[in-house]
Design a protein that fits this description.
Blueprint lengths: L1 E3 L10 H6 L1 E3 L9 H11 L17 E5 L7 H4 L10 E6 L10 E8 L7 E6 L7 E5 L3 E8 L2 E9 L6 E7 L3 E6 L4 E6 L14 E5 L3 E2 L6
Parallel strand pairs: 1-2
Antiparallel strand pairs: 3-4, 4-13, 5-10, 5-14, 6-7, 6-13, 7-8, 8-9, 10-11, 11-12
């Protein structure tokens, strides 16, 4: 087992790290304060899906990525506007604390969808060897599986045209199942996780393009 201070993906001590033989470590230097160390330990401390209800209600638990440096999921929920010219915004939910999630469900409401000009995405198993990405637009939905060799299977279906859609996602070690608008569109993908090589289903990531907004998501 090797230790590293810089990992390509979240790898705290746990099944994922054991599978790849590398553990991400928390560095403590002479400049580390007690308060700072406690904050970092809280960020790394594993959390179970059942203890992560209504994650969008806790802005501090989100790590913003994409084109903006703004903290929290405000631009996903519509609580704040992205800077002019921003085409893409995304945020990861507690990537270290959720690295070894395997069985959970989430629900989300997405709104503000207009034609083909914007859309909302949710990625589960993010940071694993087999992430699965859902994309929802005004009248279409698609589910894409990725693997070490690149993009794999992609499945899609048409939705009743609407500015708002309701999403339900179920994640297990070997399958991701998505329903949109109470089973109007149901797609599923088999994934390669659940083995000794890749045991964990990793954290969910919400992303939005254009001006659309994602409502409260509740992992269960």
């Amino acid at each position: 087992m090797k230790f590293t201070s810089s990992a390509a993906r979240p790898s705290p001590a746990g099944p994922r790290a054991a599978a790849v033989g590398q553990v991400q470590r928390l560095e403590v230097t002479r400049d580390t304060t007690a308060a700072g160390l406690l904050r970092e330990l809280a960020r790394w401390d594993p959390v179970a899906p059942r203890d992560a209800g209504r994650p969008l209600s806790h802005p501090a638990h989100w790590q913003t990525t994409g084109a903006s440096e703004q903290a929290g999921p405000g631009m996903l929920t519509g609580d704040s506007r992205p800077p002019d010219g921003t085409a893409y915004v995304s945020a990861d939910y507690r990537p270290l604390a959720t690295a070894d999630w395997t069985d959970y469900r989430l629900r989300a409401t997405v709104g503000g969808l207009r034609g083909t000009s914007n859309g909302v995405g949710i990625t589960v198993r993010a940071g694993s060897d087999h992430p699965v990405s859902l994309s929802v637009g005004h009248h279409t939905a698609s589910l894409t599986t990725d693997g070490p060799a690149g993009t794999g299977d992609r499945r899609s279906c048409r939705l009743d045209p609407s500015a708002t859609h309701w999403i339900a996602v179920s994640v297990t070690p070997r399958r991701v199942r998505v329903s949109v608008d109470d089973e109007t569109c149901t797609v599923s993908a088999r994934v390669g996780g659940g083995s000794r090589r890749e045991p964990g289903a990793s954290p969910s990531t919400c992303a939005t393009t254009g001006r659309s907004a994602s409502g409260p998501a509740s992992p269960r």
